[in-house]
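[job 4471] stage=fold_predict status=RUNNING
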Amino acid sequence: MLWPAPKHKKAEIVVPDSCITSDSITPHYKSTQTYRYHKTTHLTTDNTRNAYAPDDSITTTIVKQSSTYQEIRPPRRQSLIVDINTADTLTLQLLHGIGPTYARRIVRYRDQLGGFIDISQLLEVYGITADLLNHIAPHLVLSPSTLRQIPINTVSLKELVRHPYLDYYQVRDIIAFRNKGHRYHSPSDLMLISSMTDSTLNRILPYISFD
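[job 4471] inference complete, writing structure tokens
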């Protein structure tokens, strides 16, 4: 014999009469609280700031410990100044754009010349461009007192031919004219050399001594 399934009764909610209104049934207490985040937090005069606050205006504050910071600035780097007539290869490499290869070329060319008399002479060094020279020029100085001059009346052919402003034929004629018993007393005497030009003479004069 099968018995009929029991009928389930709907659960009844008993609400006190004091909570019943004409429109709806409202619980007397909220079971949960919702919190909102204050996006625009700011420090108040007592060094606190708002963090999270529930809807019922309860405010939670977090105390931030005051601290002072002292700004520390690195010492100002002094401008780099390099004397191209006395600097070694390591010092020249302190210049931006001058590596070991350029530094060696500058020193070798300086030794061949006897020293620089003008910063623009660096353009005569292989690989040095006008842009690179303009970049490093504010950091360059030169001391003309270190200029090494050539005693034109006693120098040998082997030594004179090393100078980059004179070619072999000019050097040969200078020595040959001297071997004939002539002595150089002034720049005009050098113009007696058939292979000498005005431009060459103007370039070589600062490096020649007539003693």
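[job 4471] summary: The first helix runs from residue 89 to 92.
[job 4471] exit 0
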